[in-house]
Amino acid sequence: MEKERVESSLKNRLSVYGASDYYGFHMPGHKRRMGELGDPYKIDITEIYGFDDLHHPEKEGIITRAQERAARLYGAEETHFLVNGSTAGILSAISGCTHLGSGFLMARNSHRSVYHGAELRNLKPWYLYPQTVDSLGINGGILSSDVENSLREHEGTEAVFLTSPTYEGICTDVKAIAEICHSYRVPLIVDQAHGAHFPFSEYFPMDALKAGADVVIQSIHKTLPALTQTALLHIQGKLVDRERIRYYLSVYQSSSPSYVLMASIDNCMEELERQGGILFEAYIRRLERFRNSCDDLKSLQLLDGEFPGEAAICDFDKSRLVICTGNTSLTGEMLMKSLRSQYHLEMEMASENYVIGISSVADQKEDFMRLSMALHKLDEIRSQKRQQKEFRESREAQWLGKAETAMAIGTAMERETEWVEANKASGRIAGKYIYLYPPGIPLTVPGERVSEELCAQIKSIFEAGQRIHGLDKDGRISVIR
Fold first, then answer.
1. Which residues pair with 191 in a beta bridge?
2. Which pTM value belongs to this model?
3. How far apart are CA 104 and CA 88, in angstroms?
């Protein structure tokens, strides 16, 4: 009975897991050990006297001062705390920078929340397609020339949206693209959810704010010691209507923002202000030792940022641990399961040909040594290489073909739909998002015309047993009647 009680209670299961020897190379960045808030119930309050109001901050209020400290740390003109994650910041930025039905230029490899933003505003999205890293089957960067050509072609574009870094740590040349956007008097919004740590060492890629973006959204809980759901939205320059963005922040965030989460953000900012240099210097030494220890892996490969052909890649975030399995008999999912079951190491995400781990300042020497040892042991017994045909087909899981947009996302979402088998969907208009999660990038979007290549891709992913969202239980695709 006691075991059943523990299993049926989320709190109890979390407590048991927290006391175990499982270690996570995944978000949140505090790694269940860094950051001290005490008993959360003791500091869980509402907007009482003396504690300010996130949605209506006082001129000298405590939340105002906390946000100003964050702005100083990041070099922003204006910074806002987000307690509904980067999603709330992305929705607010898009809504604040566009008008209903206007043109919107966005990277096709954006997170689904960006598409939701376009849907809610009934925007006309024009897509920027990333280059590809063929050897890995992952998205590269966005060409600045594609941005300029698209802005020239699509007059009336009200905002440009990029994701940098990607889930795999790949960065686009934000600086060059920001200059192009500004020459057209169009604001640049950057989803830098996975790069909140960039400003704290030159070891990491250039921060999007420093590169000139007008609005930058960062999930500090992903790579910094802060609680899940905590994020920041930064604004600079004169191209955006700040009052509109502030308004939408109050729309997309809870009207009862958590003081526990806000305290976690402020505590993280205080630690970075007080000893960020020391923390990051020590962390980078540990990270580099780990990376060097993986140089002698024979079959597994730790991605080092060297990409043949470049694929419009400006930089690579070395805190991102991308472990490739293409030269082994393992799939990414198999490697992730082995690390979990044999070594009690939980990674962030598995794709067909690689596993992603997230490292942070909270990871200690022994944590990196534990992962290195596990990888070396698995490397010894997994040297058989997969057939080239199998590898070539599996690496297409994140392929983003250039689809025809038949109608706006918001319009498509209002239409009646039906489920059809994948081999009968070609030529029809998609009625739902279909995406792998993580990373949450749609393979198809409502309003896009379904291609034969996409049908084959979706069928292959579904049959391989990967988690794919947007299909029904039989693997059918939703299309507009």
1. 163, 217
2. 0.94
3. 18
